Amino acid sequence: MLDTSVLMHDPSALFRFQEHDLFLPMAVLRALDTGKKGLSEEARNVRQVSRFLDQLLGQASPKAIESGLALAQTTLHGTAAGRLYFLRQSEPRSLPKDDDILTAALQLQESRPDVAVTLVSKDITLRIQAMALGLNAEDYHSDQVLDDVDLLYTGALLVKTDRIVAQTERALEFLIKPHECYPNLCVATEDGRFEGIVREIHAQRALASAVTDHRVQGEAVWGVQARNPEQNFALNLLLDPEVDFLSLLGVAGTGKTLLALAAGLAQTLEMHHYREIVMTRATVPIGEDIGFLPGTEEEKMTPWMGALMDNLEVLGQPEDATRWGQAATQDVLRSRIKIRSLNFMRGRTFLNRYIIVDEAQNLAAKQLKTLITRAGPGTKIVCLGNVAQIDTPYLTATTSGLTYVVDRFRHWPHAGHVTLQRGERSRLADFASEAL
């Protein structure tokens, strides 16, 4: 039995339960009808579920509906072999929808003692209530990218001395294990004398080229120097014209936004690789929602872009500049940075843009796909986030869109990934991250 939350999260859930029969209570259908209006991702998903159900019903007779609709007839997944039943309660009830769903599940269990009934829901509270009533309840697992977030690709590898085949100042050749090495993997030797990025992968060996050391004064990017090896790797991949997609993961204070913005400004204003920088993020509040905001699209998004403004204060202050010079620099920088809402991305194409997606862990896989497929020729997309800080309901570290793209892009030669480990914001922020 599927709960409304599952279908609102993934419309294709109807076809992802292999040989099992599915039951939809009337309460779920009523809840879907309530949630179909609007432009949110959940509303779009509800409308897609309605289309799926309409295709399944087709010209089916009442008798065919009573005996169950074969899911395999219309699915593209090829694995759904069960049947879909619409569950009508024996007596009407005027209770909240969750109680209706639980009642329907209990009635189904009583009427079908020969089979195991499982209530599948993304709603933790509903699963707790179901188990308290003696029902078997489970989370929806089909959208999980990984079983455990600790298995997520880190983008880095420490090469032990006994695996080195050949080493020079500019290159490193080393032995690899199956499924261990991917394009643009960041590697370092145990002795710390070599840091590089994998450029060639063969059957049992990989070749890495040395990176530019942005920790020294002469190699600063828009006045920003790397403070640790991970930040150095990030800057090298951010500046690499062959890398079209880059994901940066890290806890608060590791420098994700500062590095991405500094590299974007350098490539937009100095190198002229891109026409402008586009910044966007998911508008999910941490506390109480402050309601509708006045103004244009950019004015509405400005309160959500505090991280951008904070970093521009750092990047827009040239050394020995007067107060007037600093103000003029800020105006120039802001003129080349556009703030856009995710709600208006459908149908657009971004040409020669440097796109920064902040707080990407709050986006579902489908939302990130919608955004990334907007990229036209000459565009680079940088996704920033921390999967330990997810504010979107029903998303977890293993189902986040950021986790999804990190896992799917690691095989592509024009993508990179860096996990930033050390906080560099302040000693207060570092201690808070560890102690709180």
UniProtKB/TrEMBL annotation:
> Which keywords appear in this protein's UniProt record, sorted alphabetically?
ATP-binding, Nucleotide-binding
Query: What are the protein's GO molecular function terms?
Result: ATP binding
Q: Which Pfam families match?
A: PhoH, PIN_4
- Domain of life assignment: Bacteria
Q: Does the keyword Cell inner membrane apply?
A: no
Q: Which residues form the PIN domain?
A: 2-141
**Domain PhoH-like protein, residue spans:** 224-424
Cellular component aspect of the GO annotation: cytosol
- Annotated SUPFAM superfamilies: P-loop containing nucleoside triphosphate hydrolases, PIN domain-like
Query: What Gene3D superfamilies would the database entry show?
Result: 5'-nuclease, P-loop containing nucleotide triphosphate hydrolases
| Family stated for the protein in its record | Belongs to the PhoH family. In the N-terminal section; belongs to the PINc/VapC protein family.
In terms of PANTHER family, this protein maps to: PIN DOMAIN-CONTAINING PROTEIN (PTHR30473:SF2), PROTEIN PHOH (PTHR30473)
Protein name, per record: PhoH-like protein
> Source organism lineage?
Bacteria, Pseudomonadati, Pseudomonadota, Gammaproteobacteria, Chromatiales
